[in-house]
């Protein structure tokens, strides 16, 4: 593995402002990783950026789109570009929780029979949860502890998952047959929800050129676990001015129907708004954006740029919105357009 391709070990000093060298190294490693993915994935630049933001911020990504748009290929390409353990779980209606987490089995030894825990596919550093909404809610919930606590409890024993631990789940649109909508508690565990759309005419032509010839593309490993963890720690050192943090807080509070800061559209069209995890997501994702722009401090625009992927899965529209053809993104875009960026600190 090429040490120039992101293997620099970054020092982490709590409560210290991030230094320019760390920012420069992060930009370089991010671009290297993205470039490797783009050797396999045509277009979808915003989706690639969203997935990488989740990875470096320490969150999980949910990708939604119809089959055949490259969602699975994206996470496979990411795993090939990173020196991490990779596992794929194909979610189906008959998948059981133990098929995800693992189970205790009886094994024969020289001293007799013993109980031994056999790890499930969740014990990896990058986990692809393919078509997660094809499984029942009971099996979907098996992912909750792993995603939030980075651990798995089976038979009263808790097993820690190796870090970094990154889950990228794919799902088909809810209106298709044979799917189970993800429960709100699990949706909230995802850092971003990303919508994967269709390719353009030019992109589709490029896909055909790459996939219908005998050309084989092999990706290079550009980052390992230690480098990724170092970047994750450095990202948390990025400064967030009080006014910018307050903007993130006000955006989240503005999604609560009937709340003090709720907008008219929110009161009319939202059933419920975003959780505190949404505010955490806004700030962490904005820190990634600031570093990619070469800055050690977050600005209001960094927050604005991540509102949709950070909150679209944490808010739910009501029947009135559906009747008028409005989506969650429409109401959130109205928040971006109407909530003032800087009004000073709230009094309460």
Q: Explain this structure to me?
A:
There is one protein chain. The protein contains 16 helices and 13 strands. The strands form five sheets. The protein has a five-stranded parallel sheet with strand order 3-6-9-1-10. The protein has a two-stranded parallel sheet with strand order 2-11. It has a two-stranded antiparallel sheet with strand order 4-5. The chain folds into two domains: 19-94 and 124-237, Rossmann fold (3-Layer(aba) Sandwich), CATH 3.40.50; 238-342, Helicase, Ruva Protein, domain 3 (Orthogonal Bundle). With 348 residues, the chain is α/β, with parallel strands linked by helices. The chain has helices at residues 20-38, 45-57, 71-81, 97-101, 137-140, 144-149, 184-187, 201-211, 225-235, 242-253, 264-269, 276-292, 300-304, 307-311, 319-323, 328-338; strands spanning 61-64, 82-83, 86-90, 102-109, 112-119, 126-130, 151-154, 157-160, 166-171, 192-195, 223-224, 270-272, 316-317. Mean pLDDT is 83; it is low at 1-14. 42% of the residues lie in helices and 16% in strands.
């Amino acid at each position: 593995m090429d040490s120039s391709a992101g293997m620099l070990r970054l020092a982490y000093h709590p409560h210290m402002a991030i230094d320019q060298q760390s920012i420069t190294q992060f930009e370089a490693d991010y671009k290297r990783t993205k470039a490797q993915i783009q050797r396999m994935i045509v277009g979808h630049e915003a989706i690639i950026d969203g997935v990488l933001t989740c990875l470096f911020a320490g969150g999980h990504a949910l990708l939604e789109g119809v089959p055949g748009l490259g969602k699975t290929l994206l996470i496979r390409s990411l795993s090939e570009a990173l020196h991490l353990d990779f596992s794929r779980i194909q979610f189906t209606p008959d998948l059981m929780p133990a098929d995800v987490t693992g189970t205790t089995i009886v094994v024969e030894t020289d001293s007799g029979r013993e109980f031994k825990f056999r790890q499930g596919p969740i014990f990896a550093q990058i986990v692809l949860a393919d078509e997660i909404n094809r499984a029942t809610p009971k099996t979907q919930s098996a992912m909750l502890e792993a995603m939030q606590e980075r651990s798995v409890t089976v038979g009263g024993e808790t097993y820690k998952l190796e870090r970094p631990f990154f889950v990228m789940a794919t799902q088909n649109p809810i209106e298709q047959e044979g799917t189970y909508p993800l429960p709100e508690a699990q949706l909230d565990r995802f850092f971003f929800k990303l919508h994967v759309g269709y390719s353009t005419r030019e992109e589709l032509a490029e896909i055909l050129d790459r996939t219908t010839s005998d050309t084989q593309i092999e990706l290079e490993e550009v980052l390992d676990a230690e480098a990724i963890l170092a970047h994750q720690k450095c990202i948390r050192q990025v400064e967030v001015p009080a006014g910018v943090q307050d903007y993130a807080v006000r955006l989240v509070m503005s999604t609560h129907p009937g709340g003090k800061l709720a907008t008219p559209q929110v009161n009319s069209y939202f059933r419920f708004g975003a959780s505190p995890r949404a505010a955490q997501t806004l700030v962490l994702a904005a820190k990634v954006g600031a570093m990619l722009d070469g800055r050690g401090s977050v600005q209001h625009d960094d927050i604005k740029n991540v509102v949709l992927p950070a909150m679209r899965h944490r808010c739910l529209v009501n029947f009135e919105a559906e009747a008028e053809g409005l989506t969650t993104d429409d109401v959130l875009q109205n928040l971006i357009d109407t909530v003032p960026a800087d009004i000073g600190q709230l009094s309460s």
